[in-house]
Write a structure and sequence with these properties.
Bound molecules: zinc ion
Helix content: 25-40%
Oligomer: single chain
Low-confidence stretches: 1-5, 248-262
């Protein structure tokens, strides 16, 4: 019993001891200067919001990044592995309301608490480069970028319909509306309001943001697909229909009289199928279209009907299923003429036409569009087929959507293929100035105004004489006032702080007012990773030379929930910074990894479900190494992980076995230092082979496969195999230098996953210096090679025997060995072997009759 007590793995003693030592060495996790001559590796986990508590999702995210960083350090890279705080945002204001704590104090206390948790987990961050986005030394550069973008025409202000969350009492970006509700308040429906807002012109980069996705081969395909859909590019044609005179019957057919009609009101429609335009049987306007207001001005009955459509659209938008809206429309009694044939078609207003997509007007071609067909059938509008399949004998069911066809009922264009017709009709529209080829994006400009306190003040001044005036660079940062009453009512809290609002106009010296909106917090996270490279710079956001060395990020790791918001904004910001001449990379991150969620009992951990597991509890019970290693072991990193406390306990027991094994044989290993190892044979060959296979596997995984769960499993197998030979090891049957190599390499393999235990055992084995500075073990391919393989032999699909073959045995040799096997012989006597299938190294199957 006494002996067992002596050999007790005690993470509660080991881990704090190493954390203290690590904290005392500021160079341990520090990136080296650009001039160090080593290859660089920038590994980054998404920075957290300082809520005050790490959750298991964080632990998983950071365990992946930390394992990778440690591995790269051991591979000899100059590693940048920073951490920071996405520290602006609404919860700080809510807390201020609730507890009367100023947002800054609340935030800083939370940061301190989470930093302690991170340190207790033993995560290897370079705290010298810490970035806290709510501090003026950071957000002054948000303001600086805002001004540079304003100068380039990438920032503008306009009145627009905005998403308004009544709970947040602020505007939300389109990206922050999820199924019609606020992204922070899952049950609060977002309202539409008209407000003057600041926008970033992200659409100026729409095409480049889309094209760039093709080159991001190190990003998950699902993220690229989500971004492609979000950007939503459609190629098509804009065409003007002309508002027909109100007096009916004067309109002549044909295209000849357009010249006289040049004064006519144009209704510009967007279509992806201009080849079907001869089949247009109505023009449909969004209820908010400017013409509709003209029509309804003198027609109260029509106005009431249109208002009804607007209401339906608003409800559908709020419910988040605009695409599934039940289609309703109203005929306006007005007509438009088709520019290609002068044909009059009725003008309708419809609730499924969106004012902010394309031109807010479409031509309706029921014969060749699903939605138009549905609408025409409902309202009894004519359906005219103008495309038929190339093979004219084929029967056609309308709507016929395919673009593999030729034009019919289309005058002089009959017989052209759809593609030819699109090109031809675009040319004519351009020639006669009634349209043009057009690319339309779903992506909208990024609304960044927030009527909040806890964000970056927008560095603009409103002067009655000069209009909008930039805050001069030398007056940055525009600092948030420290003391402020937060009520979350009645617009921007900053507007109620006269000392903040009232300012001298930098242009005319007269009295002026500051902008009181603050910036969306996604501005903060759009470029924070550049600041890490030069976090203390007070003259610039960062030194371009240093950023050029570190960028792009080699590996970025975070949740897939950021696929659209953060990851599109930060790609946009990178392109803007490049065009400002600050950086040379087009994209922020070479590779992106999105880890799965941590769930418990089949559901996402949440307070309301009562299934939250606290990292502190796990660390207290099993140690940081066990909690971290379990979070890597329990599931492939890209899948959801169902948290099982039994599993953590199991990993902890495994680490205890490693500790006992290494402690027991440490004296033998220490004594073997400097001894010449003999060529391994017998048991030592078997164990070293297993070791080198394990090294090869884990090395490969770190190079991109990232099956860390199977890496941990492989280490467990290796330890099992060594332990199974405990009696022989104790009896001295394995030479001491082999024991040294086994234990030393085992500790190195564990170092990325269980850094405290690895550090402790490294010392136990008598090694000098920090294990992080030791070289990652190299796998000896000769040693790793199996010299024999066991190949199963089947007869008619049933396993009969196993033959042992050299790894490089030929197919012929394997076949011969299988046929010569006694069991196979006895079962094939008197029968015919019809076929022998050999899967090299894997299997032999005999088909016997
Ligand atoms: Zn909200
Ligand atoms: Zn002025």
């Amino acid at each position: 019993m006494a002996e067992e007590n002596e050999l007790r793995y005690d993470p509660a003693a080991i881990e704090p001891k190493w954390q203290q030592r690590w904290a005392a060495d500021p160079t341990l996790y520090a990136a080296e200067p650009v001039s160090c001559g080593k290859p660089k590796y920038y590994v980054l986990e998404m920075l957290p919001y300082p809520s005050g508590q790490l959750h298991m999702g964080h632990v998983r995210n950071y365990s992946i990044g930390d394992a990778l960083a440690r591995h790269m350090w051991m591979r000899g890279y100059n590693v940048l592995h920073p951490m920071g705080w996405d520290a602006f945002g609404l919860p700080a204001e809510n807390a201020a309301l609730k507890n009367n704590t100023p947002p800054r104090e609340w935030t800083q206390a939370n940061i301190a608490a989470m930093k302690r948790q991170m340190e207790r987990l033993g995560l290897g961050y370079d705290w010298a480069t810490e970035v806290t986005t709510c501090l003026p030394d950071y957000y002054r550069w948000n303001q600086w970028f805002f001004l540079r973008m304003y100068e380039k025409g990438l920032v503008y202000r306009k009145k627009s319909k905005v998403n308004w969350c009544p709970e947040c009492a602020t505007v939300l970006a389109n990206e922050q509306v999820v199924d019609g509700c606020c992204w922070r308040h899952e049950t609060t429906q977002v309202e539409q309001r008209d407000l003057v807002q600041w926008f970033f012109r992200i659409t100026a980069y729409a095409q480049e943001l889309l094209d760039g996705l093709d080159k991001l081969e190190g990003w998950p395909e699902k993220v690229r697909t989500m971004q492609r859909n979000w950007i939503g590019r459609s190629e098509g044609t804009e065409v003007d229909f002309f508002l027909a005179e109100e007096t009916q019957g004067t309109e002549k057919q044909g295209t000849g009289n357009r010249e006289q009609g040049s004064e006519k009101t144009r209704i510009r429609v967007f279509t992806t199928r201009v080849d079907t335009i001869f089949g247009a049987t109505s023009v449909q306007l969004a209820p908010q279209h400017a013409l509709v207001a003209q029509f309804t001005a003198a027609d109260p009955a029509l106005k009431a009907q249109v208002d009804e459509l607007i209401e339906q659209q608003k409800k559908a938008r709020e419910a988040g299923d605009l695409g599934a809206i039940e289609k309703h429309g109203v005929a306006t009694g007005r007509f438009a003429t088709n520019p290609y044939n002068g044909e009059r078609v009725p003008i309708w207003v419809a609730n499924y036409i969106l004012a902010d997509y394309g031109t807010g007007a479409i031509m309706s071609v029921p014969a060749h569009d699903e939605r138009d067909f549905e609408f025409a059938t409902k309202y009894d509008l004519p359906i005219v087929q103008v495309i038929r399949p190339e093979d004219a004998t084929l029967a056609v069911v309308l709507p016929f959507i395919s673009e593999d066809g030729v034009l019919v009922n289309s005058g002089q264009y009959d017989g052209l293929s759809c593609t030819e017709a699109q090109k031809k009709l675009q040319e004519i529209a351009a020639r006669d100035s009634f349209g043009e080829a057009k690319v339309v994006f779903r992506l909208k400009d990024w609304g960044v105004s927030r009527q909040r306190y806890w964000g970056t003040p927008i560095p603009m001044i409103h002067c009655e004489k000069d209009g909008l005036v930039q805050v001069p660079d030398e007056q940055l940062p525009v600092v948030l006032p420290a003391q402020i009453e937060i009520t979350q009512q009645g617009g921007s809290p900053l507007s109620r702080v006269p000392e903040f609002v009232n300012v001298t106009c930098p242009k005319c010296g007269g009295p002026a007012k500051r902008e009181t909106d603050t910036m969306d917090t996604f501005v903060d996270s759009s470029w924070y990773f550049y600041r890490y490279t030069d976090a203390k710079n007070s003259n610039a956001p960062f030194d371009p030379k240093i950023a050029q060395y570190w960028f792009p990020i080699d590996q970025y790791i975070g949740g897939v929930e950021h696929a659209i918001l953060h990851l599109i904004y930060s790609r946009f910001w990178t392109k803007v910074m490049r065009d400002l001449g600050l950086i040379v990379n087009d994209e922020p991150a070479q590779r992106l990894f999105t880890q799965g969620m941590v769930i418990k009992d089949g559901a996402k951990m949440s307070k309301s479900k009562g299934n939250v597991v606290s990292p502190d509890d796990m660390v207290a019970r099993y140690g940081a190494d066990a909690a971290r290693m379990y979070s890597l072991f329990a599931a492939p990193p890209d899948r959801d992980l169902d948290w099982q406390e039994d599993g953590v306990a199991g990993v902890s027991r495994f680490l205890a076995r490693v500790w006992r094994l290494a402690t027991k044989y440490a004296p033998v290993a220490r004594a073997a230092r400097g001894q010449q190892p003999a060529a391994p044979t017998g048991l030592s060959l078997k164990l070293l082979r297993k070791l080198h296979q394990t090294i090869a596997k884990i090395t490969l995984d770190f190079e991109g496969r990232w099956h860390f769960n199977t890496c941990v499993a492989a280490i467990m197998e290796l330890v099992n195999e060594i332990q199974a030979s405990d009696a022989q090891l104790a009896a001295g049957e394995v030479p001491a230098p082999a024991i040294l190599e086994l234990l030393r390499s085992l500790v190195l393999l564990l170092a990325p996953f269980a850094p405290h235990l690895a550090a402790e055992l490294w010392e136990t084995l008598g090694e000098e210096g920090n294990v992080l500075r030791a070289s990652w073990p190299a796998s000896d391919p000769e040693l790793a090679k199996e010299d024999e393989l066991a190949i199963p032999v089947q007869i008619n699909g049933k396993l009969v025997t196993v033959v042992r073959m050299a790894v490089d045995a030929s197919t012929k040799a394997i076949e011969a060995a299988a046929l010569a096997d006694e069991k196979v012989q006895s079962r094939t006597t008197g029968k015919t072997v019809v076929k022998v299938i050999v899967v090299p190294r894997k299997l032999v199957n005999l088909v016997v009759k």
